Amino acid sequence: MSRTWTLEELAALAGVPPARVRAWEAQGWLGPVPRGPGGGSAYGFEQAERCVELGGRGHPRRVCVVNQKGGVGKTTTAFSLAAALADLGRRVLAIDLDAQANLTTSFGFDPDALDLTSADLLTEEDVGPEDVILETGVEGVHAIPADIKLCAVETRIHDVLMRERILHTKLAPLYDRYHCLVFDCPPNLSRITINALVASQEVLVPVETQSYSIKAISDLTSTFTLLKSKMGHELTVWLLPTKVDRRVALACEILDAMDEAFRGRLLDPIHLDTNLVRAPLLCEPVTRAFPSSRAAQEYARLARFLTLSDVERRRWMDLTLAQRRRIIERVQAGADGAPEGGGEEAQEASA
Ligand SMILES: Nc1ncnc2c1ncn2[C@@H]1O[C@H](COP(=O)(O)OP(=O)(O)OP(=O)(O)O)[C@@H](O)[C@H]1O
Ligand SMILES: [Mg+2]
Q1: Closest ligand 1 atom number to CA of residue 206
Q2: Ligand whose nearest atom lies closest to the CA of 242
Q3: Mean pLDDT score across all residues of the chain
Q4: Do 4 and 42 meet the contact criterion of CB atoms below 8 Å apart?
Q5: Which pLDDT score, from 0 to 100, does residue 340 have?
Q6: Ligand 1 binding pocket includes 74 (Cβ within 6 Å)
Q7: What is the pLDDT of residues 243-294, one digit of tens each?
Q8: Which of 22, 36, 121, 213 is a good FRET partner for 71, with 20 to 30 A between their CA atoms?
Q9: Which residue puts its alpha carbon closest to atom 23 of ligand 1?
Q10: Does the CB atom of residue 270 touch ligand 1 within 6 A?
Protein backbone atom coordinates (compact mmCIF):
# COMPACT_ATOMS: atom_id res chain seq x y z
CA MET A 1 0.00 0.00 0.00
CA SER A 2 2.19 2.81 -1.23
CA ARG A 3 1.17 6.31 -2.22
CA THR A 4 2.71 9.23 -4.04
CA TRP A 5 3.16 12.85 -3.05
CA THR A 6 3.04 16.02 -5.16
CA LEU A 7 5.84 18.57 -5.19
CA GLU A 8 3.66 20.96 -3.16
CA GLU A 9 2.91 18.26 -0.58
CA LEU A 10 6.63 17.54 -0.15
CA ALA A 11 7.31 21.27 0.22
CA ALA A 12 4.64 21.46 2.95
CA LEU A 13 6.19 18.46 4.76
CA ALA A 14 9.58 20.17 4.75
CA GLY A 15 8.20 23.64 5.45
CA VAL A 16 10.04 25.09 2.43
CA PRO A 17 8.96 26.51 -0.95
CA PRO A 18 8.49 23.98 -3.79
CA ALA A 19 11.52 25.46 -5.61
CA ARG A 20 13.74 24.27 -2.74
CA VAL A 21 12.42 20.71 -3.12
CA ARG A 22 13.17 20.91 -6.85
CA ALA A 23 16.71 22.01 -5.99
CA TRP A 24 17.13 19.09 -3.55
CA GLU A 25 15.91 16.76 -6.27
CA ALA A 26 18.37 18.24 -8.81
CA GLN A 27 21.21 17.79 -6.31
CA GLY A 28 20.25 14.15 -5.86
CA TRP A 29 19.35 14.60 -2.18
CA LEU A 30 15.96 12.94 -2.63
CA GLY A 31 17.51 9.72 -3.93
CA PRO A 32 16.36 8.13 -7.19
CA VAL A 33 12.92 9.61 -7.86
CA PRO A 34 10.47 7.19 -9.52
CA ARG A 35 8.82 8.37 -12.75
CA GLY A 36 5.05 8.45 -13.20
CA PRO A 37 3.21 7.27 -16.34
CA GLY A 38 3.59 10.75 -17.93
CA GLY A 39 7.35 10.79 -17.26
CA GLY A 40 7.10 13.32 -14.39
CA SER A 41 8.37 12.77 -10.84
CA ALA A 42 6.22 10.38 -8.80
CA TYR A 43 7.55 11.10 -5.32
CA GLY A 44 7.26 8.18 -2.92
CA PHE A 45 7.75 7.58 0.80
CA GLU A 46 11.54 7.79 0.49
CA GLN A 47 11.32 11.33 -0.92
CA ALA A 48 8.72 12.35 1.69
CA GLU A 49 10.95 11.05 4.50
CA ARG A 50 14.01 12.83 3.10
CA CYS A 51 12.10 16.11 2.84
CA VAL A 52 11.05 15.81 6.49
CA GLU A 53 14.71 15.31 7.44
CA LEU A 54 16.09 18.03 5.13
CA GLY A 55 13.48 20.48 6.46
CA GLY A 56 14.51 19.65 10.05
CA ARG A 57 10.96 18.52 10.83
CA GLY A 58 11.66 15.01 12.11
CA HIS A 59 11.03 15.66 15.83
CA PRO A 60 11.06 12.17 17.38
CA ARG A 61 7.84 11.19 19.14
CA ARG A 62 6.98 8.19 21.30
CA VAL A 63 3.26 8.09 21.93
CA CYS A 64 1.30 5.70 24.11
CA VAL A 65 -2.43 5.29 23.39
CA VAL A 66 -3.95 4.41 26.72
CA ASN A 67 -7.22 4.23 28.62
CA GLN A 68 -8.17 1.46 31.04
CA LYS A 69 -11.73 1.71 29.75
CA GLY A 70 -12.48 -0.68 26.88
CA GLY A 71 -13.83 0.18 23.45
CA VAL A 72 -13.01 3.90 23.52
CA GLY A 73 -11.01 3.88 20.26
CA LYS A 74 -7.43 3.12 21.35
CA THR A 75 -6.68 0.60 18.61
CA THR A 76 -8.55 2.61 15.98
CA THR A 77 -6.45 5.61 16.97
CA ALA A 78 -3.13 3.71 16.98
CA PHE A 79 -3.85 2.17 13.57
CA SER A 80 -5.16 5.32 11.87
CA LEU A 81 -2.52 7.54 13.45
CA ALA A 82 0.38 5.27 12.42
CA ALA A 83 -0.75 5.44 8.79
CA ALA A 84 -1.46 9.17 8.94
CA LEU A 85 2.06 9.75 10.30
CA ALA A 86 3.54 7.74 7.41
CA ASP A 87 1.52 9.98 5.07
CA LEU A 88 3.57 12.83 6.56
CA GLY A 89 6.81 11.07 5.64
CA ARG A 90 7.41 9.76 9.15
CA ARG A 91 8.88 6.30 9.69
CA VAL A 92 6.65 4.64 12.26
CA LEU A 93 6.81 1.64 14.56
CA ALA A 94 3.38 0.55 15.85
CA ILE A 95 3.48 -1.74 18.88
CA ASP A 96 0.54 -3.94 19.83
CA LEU A 97 0.47 -4.69 23.57
CA ASP A 98 -3.06 -6.05 23.85
CA ALA A 99 -3.74 -9.81 23.99
CA GLN A 100 -6.86 -9.19 21.86
CA ALA A 101 -4.35 -8.34 19.09
CA ASN A 102 -6.78 -6.03 17.29
CA LEU A 103 -4.00 -3.81 15.98
CA THR A 104 -2.18 -6.87 14.67
CA THR A 105 -5.25 -8.08 12.79
CA SER A 106 -5.98 -4.56 11.51
CA PHE A 107 -2.64 -4.74 9.71
CA GLY A 108 -3.74 -8.07 8.23
CA PHE A 109 -1.61 -10.43 10.35
CA ASP A 110 -3.03 -13.58 11.91
CA PRO A 111 -1.85 -13.58 15.56
CA ASP A 112 -2.20 -17.38 15.78
CA ALA A 113 0.20 -17.84 12.89
CA LEU A 114 2.95 -15.69 14.37
CA ASP A 115 5.96 -17.22 16.03
CA LEU A 116 7.25 -14.29 18.07
CA THR A 117 5.26 -11.32 19.36
CA SER A 118 5.44 -8.49 21.89
CA ALA A 119 4.79 -11.12 24.60
CA ASP A 120 8.11 -12.78 23.78
CA LEU A 121 9.85 -9.41 23.69
CA LEU A 122 8.64 -8.75 27.22
CA THR A 123 9.40 -12.16 28.69
CA GLU A 124 12.33 -13.72 26.83
CA GLU A 125 15.72 -12.22 27.57
CA ASP A 126 17.19 -13.34 24.24
CA VAL A 127 14.36 -11.95 22.06
CA GLY A 128 15.16 -8.50 20.69
CA PRO A 129 13.04 -6.06 18.67
CA GLU A 130 14.62 -7.19 15.40
CA ASP A 131 13.11 -10.67 16.06
CA VAL A 132 9.56 -9.37 16.33
CA ILE A 133 9.30 -6.39 13.96
CA LEU A 134 7.21 -6.96 10.84
CA GLU A 135 6.92 -4.85 7.74
CA THR A 136 3.27 -3.91 7.23
CA GLY A 137 1.34 -3.27 4.04
CA VAL A 138 1.42 0.46 4.81
CA GLU A 139 4.68 1.82 3.45
CA GLY A 140 6.71 3.50 6.19
CA VAL A 141 5.00 1.58 9.00
CA HIS A 142 6.53 -1.38 10.84
CA ALA A 143 4.71 -3.27 13.54
CA ILE A 144 5.41 -5.40 16.58
CA PRO A 145 2.44 -7.76 16.71
CA ALA A 146 0.65 -9.19 19.75
CA ASP A 147 -0.96 -12.50 20.56
CA ILE A 148 -2.77 -14.31 23.36
CA LYS A 149 0.54 -15.08 25.13
CA LEU A 150 0.35 -11.52 26.49
CA CYS A 151 -2.21 -12.80 29.01
CA ALA A 152 0.55 -14.65 30.85
CA VAL A 153 3.11 -11.85 30.75
CA GLU A 154 1.94 -10.12 33.92
CA THR A 155 2.77 -13.14 36.12
CA ARG A 156 5.90 -14.06 34.17
CA ILE A 157 7.55 -10.69 34.72
CA HIS A 158 6.35 -10.34 38.31
CA ASP A 159 9.74 -11.14 39.85
CA VAL A 160 11.91 -9.53 37.18
CA LEU A 161 14.10 -6.70 38.40
CA MET A 162 13.14 -3.33 36.81
CA ARG A 163 10.08 -5.02 35.31
CA GLU A 164 8.52 -1.65 34.42
CA ARG A 165 11.47 -0.84 32.17
CA ILE A 166 11.72 -4.00 30.05
CA LEU A 167 10.15 -2.46 26.96
CA HIS A 168 12.05 0.81 27.27
CA THR A 169 15.38 -1.02 27.61
CA LYS A 170 14.69 -3.30 24.66
CA LEU A 171 13.34 -0.60 22.33
CA ALA A 172 15.78 2.21 23.20
CA PRO A 173 18.26 1.26 20.43
CA LEU A 174 15.41 1.85 17.93
CA TYR A 175 14.38 5.28 19.15
CA ASP A 176 16.46 7.06 16.52
CA ARG A 177 15.57 4.63 13.73
CA TYR A 178 11.91 5.73 13.73
CA HIS A 179 10.37 9.19 13.85
CA CYS A 180 7.42 7.89 15.80
CA LEU A 181 6.67 4.92 18.04
CA VAL A 182 2.97 4.34 18.71
CA PHE A 183 1.95 1.92 21.49
CA ASP A 184 -1.53 0.39 21.56
CA CYS A 185 -2.32 -0.58 25.17
CA PRO A 186 -4.78 -3.09 26.65
CA PRO A 187 -7.87 -1.79 28.50
CA ASN A 188 -6.25 -1.91 31.95
CA LEU A 189 -3.45 -0.32 33.92
CA SER A 190 -1.39 -3.50 34.13
CA ARG A 191 2.37 -3.75 34.18
CA ILE A 192 2.28 -4.03 30.38
CA THR A 193 0.62 -0.62 30.18
CA ILE A 194 3.17 0.79 32.64
CA ASN A 195 5.95 -0.60 30.43
CA ALA A 196 4.46 1.28 27.47
CA LEU A 197 4.15 4.48 29.51
CA VAL A 198 7.77 4.26 30.62
CA ALA A 199 8.87 3.84 27.00
CA SER A 200 6.82 6.88 25.92
CA GLN A 201 7.23 10.62 26.17
CA GLU A 202 3.60 11.43 25.65
CA VAL A 203 0.21 9.87 26.16
CA LEU A 204 -2.89 10.01 24.02
CA VAL A 205 -6.01 9.20 26.01
CA PRO A 206 -9.03 8.51 23.79
CA VAL A 207 -12.18 9.44 25.72
CA GLU A 208 -15.80 9.12 24.81
CA THR A 209 -18.05 12.06 25.58
CA GLN A 210 -19.93 10.30 28.37
CA SER A 211 -20.19 11.38 31.98
CA TYR A 212 -18.27 8.41 33.40
CA SER A 213 -15.34 9.10 31.09
CA ILE A 214 -14.25 11.87 33.46
CA LYS A 215 -13.78 9.31 36.28
CA ALA A 216 -11.55 7.19 34.01
CA ILE A 217 -9.45 10.28 33.28
CA SER A 218 -8.91 10.97 36.97
CA ASP A 219 -7.82 7.33 37.61
CA LEU A 220 -5.35 7.65 34.76
CA THR A 221 -4.06 10.97 36.03
CA SER A 222 -3.21 9.30 39.37
CA THR A 223 -1.17 6.69 37.47
CA PHE A 224 0.75 9.43 35.64
CA THR A 225 1.37 11.26 38.94
CA LEU A 226 2.62 8.01 40.49
CA LEU A 227 4.98 7.42 37.56
CA LYS A 228 6.40 10.88 38.08
CA SER A 229 6.85 10.59 41.83
CA LYS A 230 8.15 6.98 41.91
CA MET A 231 10.19 6.88 38.72
CA GLY A 232 10.76 10.52 37.81
CA HIS A 233 9.10 9.80 34.48
CA GLU A 234 7.14 12.78 33.22
CA LEU A 235 4.61 12.42 30.41
CA THR A 236 2.85 14.97 28.25
CA VAL A 237 -0.81 14.03 28.36
CA TRP A 238 -3.32 14.69 25.57
CA LEU A 239 -7.01 13.86 25.74
CA LEU A 240 -8.62 12.83 22.48
CA PRO A 241 -12.43 12.89 22.38
CA THR A 242 -13.57 9.99 20.19
CA LYS A 243 -16.84 8.87 18.61
CA VAL A 244 -18.22 12.35 19.12
CA ASP A 245 -21.77 12.74 17.86
CA ARG A 246 -22.69 16.42 17.80
CA ARG A 247 -26.34 15.55 17.22
CA VAL A 248 -26.43 14.43 20.84
CA ALA A 249 -26.78 17.50 23.05
CA LEU A 250 -25.14 15.79 26.04
CA ALA A 251 -22.03 14.99 23.97
CA CYS A 252 -21.61 18.70 23.14
CA GLU A 253 -22.12 19.67 26.79
CA ILE A 254 -19.54 17.15 27.96
CA LEU A 255 -17.10 18.30 25.28
CA ASP A 256 -17.48 21.91 26.49
CA ALA A 257 -17.00 20.79 30.10
CA MET A 258 -13.85 18.88 29.14
CA ASP A 259 -12.57 21.92 27.25
CA GLU A 260 -12.95 23.98 30.45
CA ALA A 261 -11.45 21.33 32.72
CA PHE A 262 -8.55 20.28 30.50
CA ARG A 263 -7.66 23.50 28.64
CA GLY A 264 -4.43 23.06 26.73
CA ARG A 265 -4.72 19.25 26.84
CA LEU A 266 -7.93 18.54 24.91
CA LEU A 267 -7.25 17.69 21.27
CA ASP A 268 -9.63 18.29 18.39
CA PRO A 269 -12.26 15.54 18.49
CA ILE A 270 -12.64 12.50 16.27
CA HIS A 271 -16.29 12.27 15.30
CA LEU A 272 -18.43 9.19 14.98
CA ASP A 273 -17.72 7.77 11.53
CA THR A 274 -18.57 4.25 10.38
CA ASN A 275 -15.67 4.35 7.92
CA LEU A 276 -13.49 3.67 10.98
CA VAL A 277 -15.32 0.38 11.48
CA ARG A 278 -15.15 -0.56 7.80
CA ALA A 279 -11.49 0.26 7.10
CA PRO A 280 -9.84 -2.38 9.38
CA LEU A 281 -12.11 -5.03 7.83
CA LEU A 282 -10.32 -4.24 4.57
CA CYS A 283 -7.00 -4.37 6.50
CA GLU A 284 -6.50 -0.75 5.50
CA PRO A 285 -6.28 2.39 7.60
CA VAL A 286 -9.09 4.88 7.06
CA THR A 287 -6.67 7.40 5.56
CA ARG A 288 -6.01 4.93 2.71
CA ALA A 289 -9.39 3.18 2.38
CA PHE A 290 -11.55 6.31 2.63
CA PRO A 291 -9.18 9.27 2.26
CA SER A 292 -11.91 11.87 1.85
CA SER A 293 -13.91 10.72 4.88
CA ARG A 294 -14.23 12.96 7.90
CA ALA A 295 -12.35 10.41 10.05
CA ALA A 296 -9.42 10.31 7.61
CA GLN A 297 -9.15 14.09 7.71
CA GLU A 298 -9.41 14.16 11.49
CA TYR A 299 -6.70 11.53 11.97
CA ALA A 300 -4.51 13.35 9.42
CA ARG A 301 -4.97 16.49 11.49
CA LEU A 302 -4.06 14.61 14.68
CA ALA A 303 -0.89 13.31 13.01
CA ARG A 304 0.01 16.84 11.89
CA PHE A 305 -0.50 18.13 15.41
CA LEU A 306 1.77 15.47 16.90
CA THR A 307 4.54 16.27 14.42
CA LEU A 308 4.49 20.02 15.12
CA SER A 309 7.23 21.61 17.19
CA ASP A 310 6.44 22.15 20.87
CA VAL A 311 6.02 25.90 20.30
CA GLU A 312 3.55 25.37 17.45
CA ARG A 313 1.61 22.87 19.53
CA ARG A 314 1.35 25.27 22.46
CA ARG A 315 0.11 28.04 20.18
CA TRP A 316 -2.64 25.78 18.86
CA MET A 317 -3.64 24.38 22.24
CA ASP A 318 -3.87 27.83 23.85
CA LEU A 319 -7.05 28.30 21.81
CA THR A 320 -10.43 27.01 22.92
CA LEU A 321 -11.95 24.07 21.07
CA ALA A 322 -14.47 26.40 19.44
CA GLN A 323 -11.76 28.82 18.23
CA ARG A 324 -9.78 25.94 16.74
CA ARG A 325 -12.89 24.59 15.06
CA ARG A 326 -13.51 27.94 13.38
CA ILE A 327 -9.91 28.06 12.11
CA ILE A 328 -10.11 24.49 10.77
CA GLU A 329 -13.32 25.35 8.93
CA ARG A 330 -11.71 28.51 7.48
CA VAL A 331 -8.60 26.59 6.34
CA GLN A 332 -10.77 23.88 4.78
CA ALA A 333 -12.92 26.46 2.95
CA GLY A 334 -9.82 28.32 1.75
CA ALA A 335 -7.93 25.18 0.80
CA ASP A 336 -10.50 24.41 -1.89
CA GLY A 337 -9.68 20.74 -1.81
CA ALA A 338 -5.91 21.35 -1.83
CA PRO A 339 -3.86 19.40 0.72
CA GLU A 340 -3.21 21.25 3.97
CA GLY A 341 0.39 22.04 4.87
CA GLY A 342 2.34 20.88 7.97
CA GLY A 343 1.59 23.62 10.45
CA GLU A 344 -0.92 25.56 8.38
CA GLU A 345 -3.57 25.60 11.07
CA ALA A 346 -1.04 26.46 13.78
CA GLN A 347 0.34 29.27 11.61
CA GLU A 348 -3.17 30.55 11.13
CA ALA A 349 -3.60 30.42 14.90
CA SER A 350 -0.63 32.70 15.42
CA ALA A 351 -1.80 35.20 12.79
N1 LIG B 1 -14.77 7.51 15.72
C2 LIG B 1 -15.38 6.32 15.61
N3 LIG B 1 -16.57 6.23 14.98
C4 LIG B 1 -17.21 5.04 14.88
N5 LIG B 1 -16.75 3.89 15.39
C6 LIG B 1 -15.56 3.91 16.01
C7 LIG B 1 -14.81 5.12 16.16
N8 LIG B 1 -13.67 4.82 16.84
C9 LIG B 1 -13.71 3.51 17.10
N10 LIG B 1 -14.84 2.96 16.62
C11 LIG B 1 -15.28 1.56 16.74
O12 LIG B 1 -15.48 1.29 18.13
C13 LIG B 1 -15.07 -0.04 18.44
C14 LIG B 1 -13.99 -0.01 19.55
O15 LIG B 1 -12.87 0.68 19.02
P16 LIG B 1 -11.40 0.20 19.38
O17 LIG B 1 -11.25 -1.26 19.18
O18 LIG B 1 -10.48 1.10 18.66
O19 LIG B 1 -11.38 0.54 20.93
P20 LIG B 1 -10.29 0.10 22.01
O21 LIG B 1 -10.25 1.18 23.03
O22 LIG B 1 -9.03 -0.27 21.36
O23 LIG B 1 -10.96 -1.21 22.61
P24 LIG B 1 -10.27 -2.24 23.62
O25 LIG B 1 -10.23 -1.55 24.94
O26 LIG B 1 -11.18 -3.44 23.62
O27 LIG B 1 -8.91 -2.54 23.10
C28 LIG B 1 -14.56 -0.66 17.15
O29 LIG B 1 -15.59 -1.39 16.56
C30 LIG B 1 -14.23 0.57 16.29
O31 LIG B 1 -14.34 0.28 14.91
MG1 LIG C 1 -7.87 -2.04 21.48
Answers
A1: 21
A2: 1
A3: 92
A4: yes
A5: 41
A6: yes
A7: 999 899 888 998 998 888 888 999 999 999 999 999 999 989 999 999 999 9
A8: 121
A9: 71
A10: yes
- Rounded to 10 deg, the angle between the 7-14 and 18-26 helix axes is 100
Q: Does ligand 1 have an atom closer than 6 angstroms to the CB of 281? A: no
Measured distance CA(349)–CA(179) in Å, rounded: 25
CA of 120 to the centre of ligand 1 (A): 26
User: Homologous superfamily of 60-307 in CATH?
Assistant: P-loop containing nucleotide triphosphate hydrolases (3.40.50.300)
Tell me how far apart the alpha carbons of residues 254 and 244 are, in angstroms, rounded to a whole number.
10
Quick: pLDDT tens for 70-109. Answer: 999 999 999 999 999 999 999 999 999 999 999 999 999 9
Q: Is the CB of 102 under 6 A from ligand 1?
A: yes
Average pLDDT of the residues in 212-229: 83
Nearest CA to ligand 1 atom 15: 73
Domain covering 1-57: architecture: Orthogonal Bundle (1.10)
* Ligand 1 atom index nearest CA of 67: 21
Contact 235, 227 (CB under 8 A): yes
pLDDT at 350: 55
Q: Hey, where are the domains in the chain?
A: 1-57, 60-307
CB 146 within 8 A of CB 104: yes
Average pLDDT over residues 299-303: 97
Give, for ligand 1, the residue of 66, 76, 270, 298 to mutate: max count of ligand atoms closer than 8 Å to Cβ: 76
- For residue 162, what pLDDT band results from cuts at 50, 70 and 90? confident
What is the total residue count of the chain? 351
**Cα–Cα dist 245/225, whole Å:** 31
Strand order in the sheet with 134-135: 134-135, 141-144, 92-96, 180-184, 61-65, 202-208, 236-242
Q: Answer whether 307's CB lies under 8 Å from 313's CB.
A: no
Distance of alpha carbon 228 from alpha carbon 226, whole angstroms: 5
